[in-house]
Design a protein that fits this description.
elongated
């Protein structure tokens, strides 16, 4: 978004919330938060927040959050489970996983974290697998939202910004002491 487009977005905010004044340094900060976004999306997010009934103008983070929310084509875990089950019945495992990736990257990531790319395990102990799938799927979706929300922030030594999602095997290896070969201690 260009500076001139941000000024138009601020004018929309003033129109929607005429009782509130946004000071210049604050507007500059918000522009910094949003300048990587298309101006059209920022303006739509502002209008959506207005229609949500906000009493005060949204700050840059709230506008960014609304752009992220409106930009996602998220499905719920039930639909993701249905897609994963549908993929599991395909004959070619590689083709099945690619199909699932096209349908829902979050569902595919959930399957990858649970089984690698082996969709055949989807049919074992269905109630338990489905519950695990739901929990992991929700975590994947939240990680995606979080990554979008914190896009562009420097890690600055903060572990939560330095690392990405990890497979459970690597977490277990970090938590347990290394295995010593027999005869050594």
């Amino acid at each position: 978004m260009k500076k001139s487009e941000w000024i138009e977005a601020l004018a929309l905010m003033r129109l929607n919330w005429p009782h509130a004044r946004v000071e210049e340094p604050v507007a500059e900060k918000w522009f910094g938060d949003l300048q990587h976004l298309p101006a059209k999306q920022v303006k739509v997010a502002i209008e959506a927040l207005y229609r949500d009934g906000r009493e005060f103008p949204p700050n840059g983070a709230q506008i960014l959050g609304k752009v992220i929310e409106l930009g996602r084509d998220e499905i719920d875990h039930g639909e993701a489970w249905r897609l994963a089950k549908k993929a599991a019945i395909k004959a070619d495992p590689k083709e099945a996983f690619e199909w699932l990736q096209e349908q829902s990257p979050a569902a595919a990531e959930t399957v990858r974290r649970m089984f690698g790319s082996q969709l055949s395990y989807m049919n074992e102990d269905e109630p338990t697998i489905r519950a695990q799938f739901r929990d992991i799927f929700r975590r994947v979706v939240e990680e995606d939202r979080r990554r979008d929300r914190y896009h562009g922030l420097p890690a600055a030594g903060l572990r939560g910004l330095e690392r990405g999602p990890r497979q459970i095997g690597s977490a277990i290896r970090r938590a347990l002491p290394p295995i010593q070969p027999e005869g050594q201690s």
